[in-house]
Amino acid sequence: MKVNCTSCGYEVNLDHTGFEDYVGPVKCFCCGSMMEIKISEGFVYSVNPLAILEDQASNNPSENPKYISE
Predict the structure, then answer these.
(1) Which residues does 59 contact at the CB level (< 8 Å), separation at least 6?
(2) Does 35 fall in a domain?
(3) CA-to-CA distance for 14 and 59, rounded, in angstroms?
(4) E strand residue ranges, 1-70
């Protein structure tokens, strides 16, 4: 499945088994903007822009949202 970035319109590929039932943040590979997505049983129910404050951002990759790349 694919969703369009809410900032730049880039088509983000979510064809990974980890996204069949997923609620949470996704980062656009093209522009770096954050989106919150809700997917259940392989169907996308919502895609919304997500703002992250700089003081909440972490340099630890294990604490960062899923990054999508192609």
Answers:
(1) none
(2) yes
(3) 24
(4) 2-4, 11-13, 22-27, 34-40, 43-50, 66-67
Kindly state whether residue 34 falls inside one of the protein's structural domains.
yes
29: Cα within 13 Å, side-chain hemisphere = 11
**What CATH number corresponds to the domain at position 34?**
2.20.28
The predicted model scores a pTM of 0.65
Give per-residue burial for 12-22: e unless 16+ CB within 10 Å, then b: bebeeeebeeb
**Residue at 22 is within a domain:** yes
> Which has the closest alpha carbon to 45: 15, 8, 3?
3
Q: What is the mean pLDDT of residues 1-30?
A: 91
Residue 64 reports pLDDT greater than 70: no
Tell me how many domains the chain contains. 1
